[in-house]
Amino acid sequence: MGGPGNPPQGTPEGAPGGDDEYRSVVFDESFIRAARLQEFSAEERITDHTPAVRRAPPLHRRGSSWQALVLVVVIAAAFATAVYLGVRQPYGGPAAQRTGSLRMTVIPLVPVTAVPGGRSTDLYEHSPAAQFGTGAEGITLPAARRTANFSSGQVMTALTTVKDYLVESSLDPDVLTGGAVRPVRVLVDPDQLGQFDRSFARPLADGLHAATGWLVRFDPARTVLAEPRVRVQGTLRAVEVDADTLEVVSDHTFVYAVRPARGGPAESSLFTVRRQLSFHFDRDDLRRHQAELVTSATQAGPLACVAGWADHLQPLLAGESADPAPPRGTDPYATGSVTNLCGTLAAGAQPKLPRTG
User: Fold this and answer.
1) C-alpha–C-alpha distance, residues 153 and 76, integer Å
2) d(CA 207, CA 156)
3) Cα dist from 320 to 62, 267, 304, 342, 354, whole Å
4) CA-to-CA distance for 135 and 148, rounded, in angstroms?
5) Sign of the dihedral defined by the CA atoms of residues 249, 126, 257, 339, in that order
6) CA–CA separation, 252 vs 239, rounded Å?
7) What's the CA gap between 310 and 345, in Å, rounded?
8) In whole angstroms, what is the distance from residue 257 CA to residue 130 CA?
9) φ/ψ (deg, to 5) at 48
10) CA distance linking residue 181 with residue 193, whole number of Å
11) Can you give the three-state secondary structure of the chain, one letter per residue?
């Protein structure tokens, strides 16, 4: 046969004739691939002038192409999934830890006698706060020592973040009597902002949602600062909890000179708040200069035990007293853990003014 059906390497040498003449022909691979022939049926062969064979149509591998495309898509999807899971949770890395809620306790301290009044300077001078520091200078930082998994620089970042939190939440005049909360809020771990916001939208004495568990503030309609310079003394301690967590524990006593918001000139009185706070830091917190608050224990007085304190602290002012008072006394200047849910303000915690006349 002539045309495209001929052997691709040309016609074999030698004249045709007999069986022996084909013995020298080698049907190599190229010949077989090119011989795309198909035998006609018997009916087709009896028709005049019809050759015994015809060219077969070229094969179309549509099925194979589709299967190959599906395979490529499956492999790409599997690879993308593996990369995603590897980024989200790399082998050997710790699982992400969820930030918990702040647990808080506020303990009102009820005075056993009428609240002493006088000039702020005299009250401070004759109180246990006489030797305390003033303002932010009273919050001193310990030496920052590296831990097994955190550098000294990271430890110092945690300590300074806690100091900033104490300054904004316990010393800032706008927070104390102006109702501002943003200076404190920006220092809180983002995962706790929902709890923080609920504590100010609807304060509750439920151990979770008291505004006074996050900061110190007075009812501005009733109490103002008689002296802007708050006295403070306390300690900070940093320890490593695990390979991914630093803990800073603070224990400070703040002493405020306050007076009535309304009326003419009035005597000042002292209001004492002891705050014991624990903070956790992961590396994201350190980078953002924010902290997760774990626990907050507050002792504050002189307060009435039955007075609402979840939203604002409402100090008993000069000359005021509370009745009845709980049977046992609590000294906020003493060391040790806070355990009472309501207590009395120890006599030694009040100023001892010299008698005149």
Assistant:
1) 44
2) 30
3) 96, 12, 10, 18, 19
4) 34
5) positive
6) 18
7) 19
8) 13
9) -60, 145
10) 12
11) CCHHHCCCCCCCCCCCCCCHHHCCCCCCHHHHHHCCEEECCHHHHCCCCCCCEEECCCCCCHHHHHHHHHHHHHHHHHHHHHHHHHHHCCCCCCCCCCCCCCEEEEEEEEECCCCCCECHHHHHHCCCCCCCEEHHHHCCCCCCCCCCCCCHHHHHHHHHHHHHHHHHHHCCHHHHCCCCCHHHHCCECHHHHHHHHHHHHCCCCCCCCCHHHCCCCECCCCEEEEEEEEEEEEEEEEEEEECCEEEEEEEEEEEEEEEECCCCCCCEEEEEEEEEEEEEECHHHHHHCCEEEEEEEEEEECCCCCCCCCCCECCCCCCCCCCCCCCCEECCCCCCCCCCCCEEECHHHCCCCCCCC
pLDDT higher than threshold 90 for residue 274: yes
What is the residue type of 8? P
- pTM, whole model, 2 decimals? 0.71
275/165 Cα distance (integer angstroms) = 12
Burial of 345 (0-12, 13-18, 19+ CB in 10 A): buried
Closest CA to 213 of 273, 257, 134: 273
Strands 245-260 and 269-281: antiparallel
pLDDT tens digits for range 115-163: 999 999 999 999 999 999 999 999 999 999 999 999 999 999 999 999 9
Find out whether 248 and 142 touch, Cβ atoms under 8 Å.
Answer: no
For residues 203 and 210, the answer to whether their CB atoms sit within 8 Å is yes
Question: Hey, what are 132's tokens?
Answer: 């305390």
pLDDT tens, position by position, 16-33: 444 554 444 455 555 445
pLDDT per residue over 73-124, tens digit each? 777 777 666 555 554 444 333 444 567 899 999 999 999 899 999 999 999 9
Q: How far apart are CA 312 and CA 197, in angstroms?
A: 15
| Cα–Cα dist 83/91, whole Å | 12
Reading the block at residue 317, the tokens are: 């002012």
* Neighbour order of strands in the sheet with 292-301: 133-134, 223-242, 245-260, 269-281, 292-301, 103-111, 343-345, 329-330
Nearest to 339 by CA among 276, 272, 278, 294: 276
